[in-house]
Design a protein that fits this description.
This is Glycolate oxidase. By secondary structure, the protein is of the alpha+beta class. Helix content is 34%, strand content 20%. The protein has 4 domains: 68 residues, 2-Layer Sandwich (Uridine Diphospho-n-acetylenolpyruvylglucosamine Reductase, domain 2); 116 residues, Uridine Diphospho-n-acetylenolpyruvylglucosamine Reductase, domain 3; 112 residues, Alpha-Beta Plaits, CATH 3.30.70; 83 residues, Alpha-Beta Plaits (2-Layer Sandwich). Helix 7 crosses helix 9 and helix 12 runs antiparallel to helix 13. The longest helix is centred in the last third of the chain and has 20 residues.
Length: 438
């Protein structure tokens, strides 16, 4: 347990600009028993607890509140079991996402969820926010790979949800309830996750340049309509590409307004990638690069993974992750561009384009403590337009602190009432991550 303020402050924030409260202490949990003891003590003394993984969240979900105990789980990183026969793994919450995938690859398997932060984010954090990622267009989000959980409840009791089997419908889906609950219902101390067969051949990758975002969005629709089933389909706007080019010199052309990066891990990946390249050309792309080796494929994907760090160099970032029906993607992109002009805000957009999940990132001056009024106004309009198109406020980052002000717009009074009722069942004293998510 850490109590020195100079030390505890380093555990108090995530990757948002939000100013945290000062925690009472930080507990570095190494076992489930540490979590149980912490929550029993916190319940007895009614002290709020903020669960924390690696602190890579983008919605303020792990931001400390004043007088809380930050329960850090990053030391709980064991792979308790990896069963090639059952294609499952039982893992602790502090395990880095990419480390699980690497361990599975040794058996010809893979862990499918692939958030852009997979080299630094933890399984527990991914479960808490129901993280998506680059491969979710084919393999789904974290919830689709979560079979069962070991959860410590607010009073220290241990709840086991789900099962080891792929199928099972006994009782309510408590596993699905905890995934995405952002630490407000319990603290996950282990997860049984589904593994999948790794592709037999290395995925083939294309990168297509476009002179307009709308052409890029049309290419996305064409690729999906053609049944190409990409394992990755990402889009970057010019603001993002310019930030990457200024940082790493990727040779950005003056006419390029958008880039589409697509990948296939099918048995006929080369043929599929060539088909996707043809569809990009047919929809206005003047230049398409097709990978000819695993190294080239990694370089193309690397452009996408550099996006957030490149934008952080420009200023502080208000990162959003709205999601719209795929058919609405071109219109949402146009709306974001118009909103940026209307409010004179620098917005850099990347998208998991294959499933309609956009990340408009509002960039403001490093010297400001929080976004200025025009940035908040622009974000408000983006959210309202998203809901108008039948979308959602958050596709994978969670509500946290940042999006609570808009939650009622999507949820409505009855849904909010039910949410609070569920919270009351699992955390009657309201000590688990209070003020977050609901």
């Amino acid at each position: 347990m850490l109590t020195d303020p100079d030390v505890t402050d380093s555990y108090a924030r995530d990757r948002t600009f939000l100013e945290p409260g000062r925690p009472l202490a930080v507990v570095l949990a190494e076992t489930r028993d540490d979590v149980v003891a912490t929550l029993r003590w916190a319940s007895e003394h009614r002290v709020p607890v903020v669960p924390r993984g690696a602190g890579t969240g983008l919605a303020g979900g792990a931001t400390a509140i004043e007088g809380s105990v930050v329960l850090a789980l990053h030391k709980m990183k064991a792979i308790r079991e990896l069963s090639p026969a059952d294609e499952i793994a039982v893992v602790e919450p502090g395990l880095i996402t990419a480390d699980l995938d690497r361990a599975a690859r040794e058996y010809g398997l893979m862990y499918a969820p692939d958030p852009s932060s997979y080299e630094i984010s933890t399984i527990g954090g991914n479960l808490a926010t129901n993280a998506g990622g680059l491969r979710c267009v084919k393999y789904g989000v974290t919830r689709d790979s979560a079979l069962g959980l070991e959860v410590v409840l607010a009073d220290g009791r241990i709840l086991n949800t789900g099962r080891r089997t792929v199928k099972g419908v006994t009782g309510y889906d408590l596993t699905g309830l905890f995934v995405g609950s952002e630490g407000t219902l319990g603290v996950i101390t282990a997860a049984t996750v589904r593994l999948r067969r790794a592709p037999a051949v290395y995925p083939a990758t294309i990168a297509a340049e476009f002179t307009s975002l709308r052409d890029a969005a049309r290419a996305v629709a064409a690729i999906i309509a053609a049944g190409c089933q990409p394992s990755l389909l990402e889009m970057l706007d010019r603001t993002t590409l310019k930030a990457i080019d200024d940082w790493r010199n990727i040779g950005l052309e003056a006419s390029t307004q958008a880039m589409l990066i697509a990948q296939s891990d099918a048995a006929d990946a080369t043929a599929v990638s060539e088909r996707m390249a043809e569809l990009c050309t047919a929809n206005g792309s003047p230049f398409v690069a097709v990978s000819s080796s695993p190294q080239e494929a990694e370089e193309l994907i690397g452009v996408r993974r550099m996006a957030y760090q490149a934008k952080e160099r420009l200023g502080k970032c208000l990162v959003e992750d709205v999601c719209v029906p795929r058919s609405a993607l071109p219109y949402m992109i146009e709306k974001i561009e118009a909103i940026a002009v209307k409010y004179d805000v620098l917005i850099a957009t990347v998208a998991h384009a294959g499933d309609g999940n956009l990340h408009p990132i509002f960039i403001f001056d490093h010297g400001l403590a929080e976004p200025p009024p025009n940035v908040w106004a622009a974000a408000d309009e983006v959210f309202r337009e998203t809901l108008e198109m039948g979308g959602t406020l958050t596709g994978e980052h969670g509500v946290g602190l940042l999006k609570r002000r808009w939650l009622s717009l999507e949820a409505g009074p009855l849904t909010e009432e039910i949410h609070h009722g569920i919270k009351q069942v699992f955390d009657p004293l309201g000590i688990l991550n209070p003020g977050k998510a609901i």
